[in-house]
Amino acid sequence: MSEPFSVRITVRGYETDVQGHVNQSVYINYAEHARWSLLQTAGISQADLLGRGVGPVGLETTIRYKRELLAGEEIDVTCAFAWGTGKTFRIEQTIRKADGTVAAELTSVGGLLDLEKRRMIANPHDCFKELAKDPGLFDL
What is this structure's pTM? Predict the structure, then answer.
């Protein structure tokens, strides 16, 4: 896939702190929104995941803040999956202002939890590939 999946979001006033910029926890909400938007666009719903008996889990997130975001600004949040050979995968995300300025970079480690066994499944990319109508969005 040449360009990562991206979703546009408008920063809302209630997401800002007393200094007028986006509160740090909101960056994670933006990233989560982009991830679920990617799943939906690829044809995977929450019901599909539950029907398969799995649920996505976040294990680790690192955020590198580059520039502040202010209420009313439009941002684009990218989402690209990076697959390995084990039970986990990485998700690389960038939050950019409309002018292209990078506001933040997020790297997450996630996996798919077997909801019955309460253990991570092996080869989560196989599950995404099986469920997705457009697995190319996951670079599969």
Answer: 0.94
Rounding to the nearest 10 degrees, give the CA dihedral for residues 98, 24, 120, 77: 0
57 φ/ψ angles, rounded to the nearest 5 degrees = -130, 140
Q: Residue 3's pLDDT band (boundaries 50, 70, 90)?
A: confident
Residue 120 has pLDDT above 90, yes or no: yes
Q: How far is Cα 44 from Cα 130, in angstroms, rounded to an integer?
A: 10
Burial of 140 (0-12, 13-18, 19+ CB in 10 A): middle
Q: What angle do CA 42, 44, 50 make, to 5 degrees?
A: 165
Phi, psi for residue 116 in degrees, rounded to 5:
-85, -50
